[in-house]
Amino acid sequence: MLKQLTHVQVWVDDQDEALAFYTDKLGMELREDVTLPELGNFRWLSVGIPGQDVSITLMAVPGPPVFDDETREHIRTLLAKGASGGLFFAADDAQSTYEQLKQRGVEFTQEPTEQPYGVDAGFRDPAGNHFRMVQQQG
Amino acid sequence: MTPVPPERHLLRAKDLADARYHEPLDVETLARAAFVSPAHFSRQFRRAFGETPHQYLLTRRLERAAELLRNTDRSVADICLTVGLRSIGSFTTSFKQLYGVSPTAYRAAHPPTERARVPTCVRQAYARPLSSSFREDKPRAPG
User: Fold this and answer.
1) Which of A125, A138, B40, B53 has the fewest Cβ atoms within 10 Å of its own Cβ atom?
2) String of b and e for A53-89 (b: at least 16 CB within 10 Å)?
3) Can you give the pLDDT of all 143 residues of chain B as single tens digits?
4) CA of A109, closest CA in chain B: separation in Å?
């Protein structure tokens, strides 16, 4: 049996920009930041929500030898179009979290809105990844 | 650092249409959100997302209207204005073109039901009618 989900991967355009966004703006902590010269300076970079063990790996879209240039451009374009999937977060207070993140410059796609399952808001990271934040109904 | 693909800016216009469809949005406003000149905006948007910004916004509004027809008892005129459309006549025409029936007939055929709890953003994304059902979008005859 599988035991646990440890990392989820998110494609990003620029790892430095992403790191600043996920830590300074979203309030996550840096978990791993390792650059491997033997792998063409591949950088394994992960962040996470303090107190939760799942990490988010901020993965640069690689060129050759992993992907040919055309494939890499396809992925980057899909990312920019918002077609790269998303993550769902929970918040205790969606409205105050929204105000805090908005003030830090997070790009919201939807303000906190009452839904049958709770209060729901949407935002994006600089690369175009889509995230939801839900305050579950008690 | 590689520059951000231009689609990232066009995505902002798409997000704006999703978030503020109830306001009197025009192509100029959407173009501004994408940092693109209005002259090039529609073509670029269409290249990125497969339909014009006008079609995207209209189908978003009709999707929202269909939701309100199914799940509220508000009048057709009220729903039309609520989703950002000003002419009830063209609302009814567009609605018929995409859903095959008038708003009133659609409501009668879709009584409110207990709904599975998938996030609303998912529901909105999947429920939007295809703008290709508009007659103006039908492939032209060859020649």
Assistant:
1) A138
2) eebbbbbbbeeeeeeeeeebeebbbbbbbbebebeeb
3) 567 899 999 999 999 999 999 999 988 999 999 999 998 999 999 999 999 999 999 999 999 999 999 989 999 999 999 999 999 999 999 999 999 999 999 999 988 776 667 777 887 888 888 877 676 544 544 44
4) 6
A76 vs B contacts (CB less than 8 Å):
2, 5
Q: Are the C-beta atoms of residues A86 and B13 closer than 8 Å to each other?
A: no
- For residue B6, the Cα-to-chain-centroid distance in whole angstroms is 22
In this predicted complex, what is the ipTM? 0.85
The beta-carbon contacts of B110-117 under 8 Å, at least 24 apart in sequence, are B110/B66, B110/B69, B110/B70, B111/B70, B112/B70, B112/B71, B115/A116, B117/A116, B117/A117
Choose the mutation target among A11, A12, A13 for the interface with B, i.e. most B CBs under 10 Å: A13
pTM above 0.90? no
Q: Which tokens go with A43?
A: 């950088």
Closest CA to A13 of A75, A88, A70: A75
Cβ-nearest to B11 among A14, A82, A116? A82
* Nearest residue in A to B120, CA atom: A115
Query: What's phi and psi for B72, nearest 5 deg?
Result: -135, 170
Would you state the structure tokens that stand for residue B51, as one six-digit string? Answer: 């339909």
**Nearest C-alpha neighbor of B61 from the set B96, B30, B94, B21:** B21
Q: Quick check: B67 contacting A, CB < 8 Å? A: no
**Using the beta-carbon criterion (under 8 Å), do A113 and B120 form an inter-chain contact?**
yes
* Both tokens assigned to B11: 């995505």
